[in-house]
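Quick entry, no commentary yet.
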Amino acid sequence: MKIYRNLILVLVVLMTSCEKSGDLFFDKEQTDINIWLGSSTIPQDSVSFNFSHMLPGRDSLIFHYRLLSYPLDHDVDFELEAIDGDIDLVYFSFGKYTIKAGEYQGRFPIYFDKPEVYNEFKDKAGKLRFRLKAGGAIKTGIKELSTLTVILQNGISKPDQWDVAPLYYGPLWRYFGTYSLTKHSLLIQQSGRTDFRVITMNNAVTQEDTEALSVAEAIAIVDKCKKWLLEYKAQNNGEPYRDENENEVIFP
């Protein structure tokens, strides 16, 4: 993760220096591009897409791009392609990816379709890897930011940020304690949400993550769960609510 953060920071500094000084660090017609998953400034090695978190139909996963040059004076299109993984087990499609004149960075979706009955990846996670499709006007940029790896799931599984979280986010164990499937199900039941991320510092990086929780919201969910656990215990002759390992479900 550290190398990805450093790469992005270097690019930001270079672009800023270019804009301020007017020096031509880049060829104005250069069309190399970086693509990545994660936030706009912090790439992740891979991200999860969980089919159990969506109803039958279509959902999307967002990726980011950045030209390694000045903004172009004309529109330019690019395409993605799947290169390996469980390609034949997933219904996915791409949108029309057009970088408008004057723009050099942004975000686009990859679409995933879920049939009415879909049982793939329930017992074992899958994977898909995408890259820039060769042959177009846009060329691949830095090697480390040239592919998109998606981990495919279809059931309740430990969230990516439970043990370790990226910069500006808090690990979920800090708010929810030890992980278990039973506790995870209770969190979904009491919060009405399936995606859990907690922002610890508001800034330009996290502003675009409108689905993440604040620390106060995470604590409010914990309070609801604690209340439910007390009610359960009272209704079951003092017997606590237990997880799949017969451990009592507790929160910090």
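second:
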Amino acid sequence: MQTDNAKQGSGLKKIAGWTVATVAAVPVTKMVESYFDVSFFTSMFAAVGAWLSQTIPIHLWLFWVAGIGSTLAIVFGVWALSEKRLAVGVAKSEEEKAYAKARDAIGKLNAVDATLNATMKELKVTRKKLEATESERAEAIAKIAELQTSKEQVLTEHQRVVLAAVAYYDNSNEECDVIGLSQRIKFTVVQTEGAVDVLVKRKLVNEYYASYGGRVVSLSPDGRAYVLHPDFDMSFLPL
């Protein structure tokens, strides 16, 4: 059994050896023929042929096969590990780039947010200033209106007499003609007309003109409230 295995191994070895030698002979011959003598090259091939003609046991072939297989497995494993490490390195590099871009984007967003916050604060300050300005403007307008509005003065004696007389005419359901009123209270027409002008301006009496052209007056709602006040004295009327 061992002899058959040895013969089979020897035959395989011879076939493999001669095949490799034949393929490699041409380029090797071209490469080294300028450096080595032909006789040396021939003797080298003779030695290789003599080595190949030797009988090698099958267990030695199995050892060689196992060794070569192990070597190939180690080489493949190292290559696969290198490829994996390279892929991991590339992935980490891409991840770092992505993180760098994210950090840059976050930094820009933070800058924009800070600018926005500063702008909002400025807007709030401006708004407060504007509100203060509007308040000052409103106060100024009110002050101007107050200054432009003449203070309501107390009625003079002539004006009170005319107002009381108009009230008397209203109580008597008589038409109060200004000319007739002036004669009745013994005022001049100018005095009566002047008093009526003030009372009309202060909206204490209403005026209209009769069909004959005479100026007629009567108490307004404010005038009635004025003469009905407890402090208003009508006892001095010369009627």
